[in-house]
Design a protein that fits this description.
Elements (H helix, E strand, L loop, with lengths): L1 E5 L7 H11 L4 E7 L2 H13 L3 E7 L2 E8 L24
Parallel strand pairs: 1-2
Antiparallel strand pairs: 2-4, 3-4
Protein backbone atom coordinates (compact mmCIF):
# COMPACT_ATOMS: atom_id res chain seq x y z
CA UNK A 1 0.00 0.00 0.00
CA UNK A 2 1.33 3.45 -0.94
CA UNK A 3 0.16 6.67 0.65
CA UNK A 4 1.16 10.23 -0.21
CA UNK A 5 1.88 13.37 1.77
CA UNK A 6 2.16 16.72 0.03
CA UNK A 7 4.62 18.59 2.26
CA UNK A 8 5.59 21.30 -0.23
CA UNK A 9 5.99 24.61 1.56
CA UNK A 10 6.32 22.98 4.98
CA UNK A 11 9.28 23.81 7.21
CA UNK A 12 11.15 21.06 9.04
CA UNK A 13 10.40 19.16 11.13
CA UNK A 14 6.76 19.01 9.99
CA UNK A 15 7.41 16.74 6.94
CA UNK A 16 9.17 14.26 9.25
CA UNK A 17 6.46 14.44 11.90
CA UNK A 18 3.65 13.85 9.41
CA UNK A 19 5.56 11.04 7.69
CA UNK A 20 6.23 9.36 11.05
CA UNK A 21 2.57 9.66 12.07
CA UNK A 22 1.49 7.89 8.89
CA UNK A 23 4.17 5.20 9.17
CA UNK A 24 3.15 4.55 12.77
CA UNK A 25 -0.36 3.62 11.59
CA UNK A 26 0.99 1.04 9.11
CA UNK A 27 2.27 -2.49 9.70
CA UNK A 28 3.96 -2.29 6.30
CA UNK A 29 3.78 -0.12 3.22
CA UNK A 30 5.19 2.96 1.58
CA UNK A 31 4.78 6.66 2.26
CA UNK A 32 5.75 9.06 -0.51
CA UNK A 33 6.39 12.52 0.89
CA UNK A 34 6.77 15.36 -1.60
CA UNK A 35 8.92 18.28 -0.44
CA UNK A 36 10.40 21.32 -2.13
CA UNK A 37 13.63 21.87 -0.21
CA UNK A 38 16.84 19.91 0.21
CA UNK A 39 16.92 20.26 4.01
CA UNK A 40 13.66 18.31 4.24
CA UNK A 41 15.11 15.67 1.89
CA UNK A 42 18.21 15.25 4.05
CA UNK A 43 16.20 15.13 7.26
CA UNK A 44 13.61 12.66 5.93
CA UNK A 45 16.30 10.31 4.64
CA UNK A 46 18.22 10.51 7.94
CA UNK A 47 15.04 9.88 9.93
CA UNK A 48 14.08 6.92 7.73
CA UNK A 49 17.47 5.28 7.99
CA UNK A 50 17.57 5.80 11.76
CA UNK A 51 14.24 3.96 12.03
CA UNK A 52 15.44 1.11 9.80
CA UNK A 53 13.26 2.05 6.83
CA UNK A 54 14.38 2.16 3.22
CA UNK A 55 14.31 5.65 1.70
CA UNK A 56 14.66 6.57 -1.97
CA UNK A 57 14.59 10.11 -3.34
CA UNK A 58 13.59 11.22 -6.83
CA UNK A 59 13.82 14.83 -8.03
CA UNK A 60 11.70 16.45 -10.71
CA UNK A 61 11.48 20.18 -11.46
CA UNK A 62 12.84 21.25 -8.07
CA UNK A 63 10.51 18.99 -6.10
CA UNK A 64 11.53 15.80 -4.35
CA UNK A 65 9.58 12.61 -3.74
CA UNK A 66 11.00 10.68 -0.81
CA UNK A 67 9.66 7.14 -0.85
CA UNK A 68 9.92 5.57 2.61
CA UNK A 69 9.20 1.86 2.81
CA UNK A 70 8.31 0.09 6.04
CA UNK A 71 8.53 -3.69 5.88
CA UNK A 72 6.54 -5.96 8.16
CA UNK A 73 8.38 -7.08 11.26
CA UNK A 74 7.12 -9.29 14.05
CA UNK A 75 9.19 -7.07 16.34
CA UNK A 76 7.27 -3.81 16.17
CA UNK A 77 7.25 -0.90 18.61
CA UNK A 78 4.89 -2.74 20.94
CA UNK A 79 7.04 -5.84 21.32
CA UNK A 80 8.52 -4.77 24.64
CA UNK A 81 5.09 -4.07 26.05
CA UNK A 82 4.11 -7.67 25.28
CA UNK A 83 6.63 -9.10 27.74
CA UNK A 84 9.70 -9.72 25.62
CA UNK A 85 13.00 -10.37 27.31
CA UNK A 86 15.52 -7.54 27.19
CA UNK A 87 19.17 -8.01 28.12
CA UNK A 88 21.40 -4.99 28.68
CA UNK A 89 25.17 -5.34 28.51
CA UNK A 90 26.70 -2.38 30.25
CA UNK A 91 30.34 -3.37 30.09
CA UNK A 92 32.65 -5.38 27.89
CA UNK A 93 34.77 -6.56 30.84
CA UNK A 94 34.13 -9.22 33.47
Amino acid sequence: MKQRIDARGWDCPRPIIETKKLLDTMKEGTVITTVDNKLAVTNLISFSESMGYEAVCAEKDGEFDIEVTKEFSEYDDNTLAKGSLVIQISSNTY
